[in-house]
Structure formats: structure tokens, C-alpha cells
Amino acid sequence: MSTADRDTEVTQSPNNGVPQEVVLDDKAAIEVDKESLSVTPDGEEPTDTEKKALRHVAENLPISAWLVAAVELSERFTYYGMSGLFQNYVQRPLDGSQGRGALGMGHQGATGLTTFFQFWCYVTPIIGAIVADQYLGKYKTIMAFCVIYLIGLLILVCTSIPTALAHGAGLGGFIVAILIIGLGTGGIKSNVAPLIADQYKRKRMALSTTKKGERVIIDPSLTIQRIYMIFYGCINIGSLSLLATPYMERDVGFWSAFLLCLCMFACGTMVLILGRNFYVVRPPQGSIITDAFKALWIMVRNRNMDAPKPGWQAQHRGVQAHVPWDDHFIDELKRALVACRVFCFYPIYWVVYGQFSSNFVTQAGQMDGHGIPNDLMQNFDPISIIVFIPILETLVYPLLRRMKIPLRPITRIALGFVVASLAMMYAAIVQHLIYSAGPCYEHPGCSASEVDGTAQGNNVHIAIQTPAYVLIGISEIFASVSGLEYAYTKAPPSMKSFVQSMYLLTNAFGSALAEALTPAAYDPAILWMFVGLSGASFLVGIVFWLLFHHLNAQEDDMNALDAEDWMPEAPRDEKQ
Q1: How many distinct structural domains can be found in the chain?
Q2: Which residues lie within the region annotated Disordered (predicted)?
Q3: Pick from 532, 550, 563: which is nearest to 341 by CA?
């Protein structure tokens, strides 16, 4: 038998402990592998051989995780049901009929204000993260910002009542409301995503035997992936509020839709309060974020990422460093910086994503609606997510794992960018069809389209827009869900909310870029804006893959850092 046909194993000599090479033929190697797959008892960490040979599976979610998901569902119900109406609320004038408009600031004014609201909502998570990680903890912080959110909603409802609009309270009330609501939603958003993953306590792989007798590996990374898939599914079930609020806007008035959102959020806050004894809560870590910035400054000053380590300081400075961290904290911080590098590419994606709640709404209004409110079309985004998440989670991903083709986060994120580019290309095609149809062609809403004094869209059926929303939804499953997962798994345990806020901050930068594109949001220039965003998203996806695909191979090693310092569940009297 040739050397190429043999495996080798290193053993310890019983006499002198010197490693010796033992040659095994193929049959013997197979027997050794079989034996190694059966000796490790259930519940123990698998060997390297078992990790490669056995199927990896995810665990079910604990009840506390479902409670957190329910809170997020109610918050997203409120956010999307409310903000999905903002384009019409700001753009169209108040004409005395229900649901026709409110502030009358036109297309560009509406796009500018709604884009600012999105920007503000994704800057404020930094405030919530600092409060949570350094002072109050996630649960108490969420509760505090829920109160702020409720105040903002109350202002929005009161100033959108027809009497208040008629007396000029609409614009001032709207601006105050979106500032307060943005602060509230930001403080919640940076904490609820890491809080749901905190409910799952396993940090190391473990062996298990299924009811059918199959030996499998419980993989925490797959469970975290499942948690965020379900979490994102709940977000989009909540966003189906847009099935109801556009009709309430049209048939009753904006105030009724905003009131529904206020009531739903109050219910979610009650769930948060009543379930307080079920949650697993990590206490705040004092000056942890301040320490992180101090360590980053030492890295920059010394041009070395290991410079803040006490061991490095002792070796290179000849003195024992008096710092409030150890070497492991710096390793965690370096891992978090890897995640932040990955996040740098997200603003382009968020520019594309933001189109579905702004310019896509206006585009729908330029087509023949056949009785469908233009802002109702947004629902095809969450509907597509709700449909495709179970397909991916129960069919596609398990099939790929059985075929030994793991779809790692970096791959999924890059794929999300590419699918988003397809959505924008399709939107550009739809815009071209609108401009090619009468009666107004490149100037939709002209006087030639008016029926009973109300401008109608061009002769293109509104349903043609549906695939653009579906593609945006699919791209979210790959890019947005994977971003949440990456932010949690790569963050140090004591900085989960802060790193999550860094991920959310990329959405704010995306909104800032979208704000810069507002001058191009007019007919017919907007078609070329869609084309440009399509090309940019595709190119960024390719560059992202080329720069970061090597991180897929390091995924398990980076995730393993958390297993070394996971804190056990807080005792009953420490829970919030």
C-alpha cells in the first residue's frame, strides 16, 4: 500500500511519553472514526472528528425568547403602520376629505422628512446602547424608552386630528413627534435584538441523540441564526399593520391609524412588564464602553491591535500596565472591530432598502391603483419575508448543511446586496413603463389624468410593482438578518447592545445618503437614480465578498470566544 493510501495517528509511548507515528490502513482508520463517533456521551462537547462527520442542528427557542419576540412584533406593528403613512401625510395637502393628505409639502418635502425620520431612528440606538451596557441593563432601558415612545405617539395622534390640522398644529406636532418617537424606537431597537439572543444560554456545541436514534450536534451558532430568523419573521408579521392603516387613513383619517398604533404599542409594553420574571438579564458592566474606547485609543496610538493587552505592555514597555481589562477583553474587542469593518458596507444596502417606504410609495401612486391605496403595496415586502423565511429555515438551509455546503454569514450578506440590486433594476423598469404610458407619460399626475378633480396614475396596473417589494424582502433575509446575527455573535458579552447599535448606525448613514439623493427624486430623473442604486448595490456586494469571504473560515473560532466567559442566568432577585 502506498503512502498516499494510508492515514497516520500520533500516540504517546507508554514508556517515555515520546510521540510515535502509528500507520493505519483505510479500514483501520474507518473503524477508529466509527469508534470516536460513539464514545462521547450526550451533552458533552463533540470531538473534531464528530464535528465534521455528524449533522449540525439548532435547538428550539426558550419561552422567554418568544416573549421578547412578541414585544418586538408590537413595536414594529407600530413603527411600520405609522411611518408607512408618513409619505402621504406629509406630501398631500389637507383638502377637507378624509385621508387625502395633511401637511401638503410635496414629493421632495415628504421624501426629505421621512428620510430624516429613518436617519434619526438609527442614530438614537447609540444612546440606548450606552444606557443599557453601562448603566441600566437591557430590560430597564427598554422599559424607559417604551415610555418615551408612548409620549411621542400620543403627540402624533393629538396633532393629526382634523381640528388640530385645521388650526396649523400638524407640522410642528409631526416634527416633535418624530423626534421623540425616533428616540424611543432607537433605545428599544439596540437592546431588544441582543436581549432575545441572551435568552439562549448554550455557548458550546454538544452531542445529542434524536428520537430516531441519529447522533447529531447541537450547534449554538445555528440556534442563534434560527433565533434571528424567527425574530425577523416577527418583525415582518408586525409590519403587516400596513394592511389596515392605509384603509383607516383613507376611510377615517390619519389620526385613526396612528391611534391603532398607539394602542398596539401599549399592549406590547404590558407584555414586557408582565413577563419580567421570565427574562434572562445580564447586569450592566459599569464603564465597559469607556474602557473600550480607551483601549481603541491605545491601539491607534501604538499602531498595534495587541497594544492595550497588559502582557504586551509588560513586554514592550517593561512595566506592568494598570488597566481595567485583561488580554481576553482585548481579543473580544478585536473581534468586534472585525464586525464593524463588515458593517462599513451596509449604508449602500440601506439606501436601497429605504426606497420601499418612500419613493416606491410615490411610484405606486403614479400607476392605476384599481382601488388599492398606493401605500398598501408596501405589504408585499413583509409578506415575502414571512413566506420565504420558513422555506429557507426548514428546507433550503438544512438541505445545504446535509450537502456540506454551509451558507456562512458573509456569503449571505453578499447575496443580499446582489438581490437588492435586482430589486432596484426592476423598479427602474417599472418606472420606464410608467413614463411610456398615458395619459401623462413622463409627468404622472398631470391635469389630463384628473377625474372629478383628483389626479390619477398612468395606465399601468399597480400590481406590476409587486416583484420589486418581493426582491427587497428576500434581500433582507440574507443581508439584514445576517447583520443582526453577526452583530450579536461578534460582540463582547458586555457590549452586545453597543455593537448592535453600531450595526444600526449604518442604517442612519444609509438614510443620510438617501437624503443627499432627495434632489433627484423627481420625474423623470428618478428612473436613473434607481439604475444607479442598482449598479452600486451589485458592485458593493461583489467587493464585499472579495474582501471578507475569508472570514467564513474563521466563523467558529470567533464565536467560540463567547463560550469562555458566558455568565450564568441571573438569580431570581437579580432579574428585572
Answers
A1: 3
A2: 1-20
A3: 550
Q: How far is CA 141 from CA 17, 105, 186, 501, in A?
A: 57, 36, 11, 14
Question: In this structure, are 375 and 479 located in the same domain?
Answer: yes
Question: Is residue 474 one of the residues assigned to a domain?
Answer: yes
Q: Give the phi and the psi of residue 46 in degrees, each rounded to 5.
A: -70, 160
Q: Considering 323, 342, 372, which residue would you say is the last residue of a domain?
A: 323
**pTM of the predicted structure, to 2 decimals:** 0.76
What does the alpha-carbon distance between residue 505 and residue 127 come to, in Å, rounded to a whole number?
11
- For residues 58 and 224, what is the distance between their CA atoms, to the nearest angstrom? 8
19 preceded by a cis bond (ω within 30 of 0): no
On whether the CB atoms of residues 379 and 243 are closer than 8 A, the answer is yes
Measured between alpha carbons, how far is 454 from 445 in angstroms, rounded to an integer?
Answer: 9
- DSSP one-letter code for 495: G
Cα radius of gyration rounded to whole Å, the chain = 27
- Separation of alpha carbons 473 and 136, rounded Å: 35
What would the mean pLDDT of 391-417 be, rounded to a whole number? Answer: 90
**124 and 10 in one domain?**
no
Residues 319 and 445 in one domain: no
Q: For the chain, percent helix, then strand, then coil, each to nearest 5?
A: 70, 5, 25
Of 272, 298, 323, which marks where a domain is finished?
A: 323
Residue 467: which domain range? Answer: 55-287+327-565
Clarify whether residues 403 and 303 are in a common domain.
no
Neighbours of 545 (CB within 10 A): 17
Q: DSSP assignment, residue 136?
A: I
- Summarised one tens digit per residue, pLDDT across range 308-349 is 888 787 777 666 667 778 887 888 788 788 778 899 999 999
Residue 573 domain-assigned? no
What pLDDT score was predicted for residue 385? Answer: 93
Q: Are residues 303 and 333 in the same domain?
A: no
Regarding whether 123 and 93 lie in a shared domain, the answer is yes
560 assigned to some structural domain:
yes
Residues 270, 394 within the same domain? yes
CATH number reported for the structural domain that contains residue 533 in this entry:
1.20.1250.20
Between the alpha carbon of residue 275 and those of residues 66, 110, 251, 267, 363, the distances in Å are 11, 39, 37, 12, 43
d(CA 280, CA 64): 8
Find which of 399-413, 484-498, 537-551 is predicted with most confidence, using mean pLDDT. Answer: 537-551
Question: Are 487 and 555 contained in the same domain?
Answer: yes
Decide if 64 is inside a domain. Answer: yes
> What pLDDT digit, counting tens, does each position of 467-504 carry?
999 999 999 999 999 999 888 888 877 778 888 888 88
- What angle separates helix 466-489 from helix 220-238, to the nearest 10 degrees? 140
Instruction: Please state which of the ranges 281-285, 423-427, 533-537, 546-550 shows the lowest mean pLDDT.
Output: 281-285
